[in-house]
Amino acid sequence: MAYAGLTAERLTRAGAELADEVGFDQVTVSELARRFDVKVASLYSHLKNSRDLKTRIALLALEELADRAADALAGRAGKDALIAFGHVYRDYAREHPGRYAAAQFRLDPEAAAASAGGRHAQMTRAILRGYDLTEPDQTHAVRLLGSVFHGFVSLELAGGFSHSSPDSAESWSRTLDALDALLRNWPAP
Q1: Omega of the bond leading into 166 within 30 degrees of 0 (cis)
Q2: Among 11, 52, 80, 181, which residue carries the largest CB count within 10 Å?
């Protein structure tokens, strides 16, 4: 019988909070059971295993990021949209480091197809329409933006910029300006 009050959604949200506290890699069904002061077996009526829990956290994180990005992009285009989009990723990662890590979790094809990942790609492509890129350049630019955003945020979260001047916020601003300039002058093949 299921433990009263426990649902897959409640466990997912608690798992996401746990990820932010201890790191996504440390999230397990056992650790979650300790948090609720229940036996691990009590959770298996809601979760299959730790991979299922991590998949659910990843899906939650992707959805939260997509919702934030959609709100931030409303009514914006060009450089303003690019900057807003970049800030969403950086701010989310800083506020929710475990969930941000979860958003990078490799999903199986079925879960990936049902995730908000497609919304992220659509929003990125919508931003790039303002730069008048066609295929395959648009796909290259999507990959470039994802790589730069993720690389910068990951290095910043790991403390990679904390021991030198100028402040990483200044570097972030310059990075976004450089991306805008690059996209405006995208090299011809």
Answers
A1: yes
A2: 11
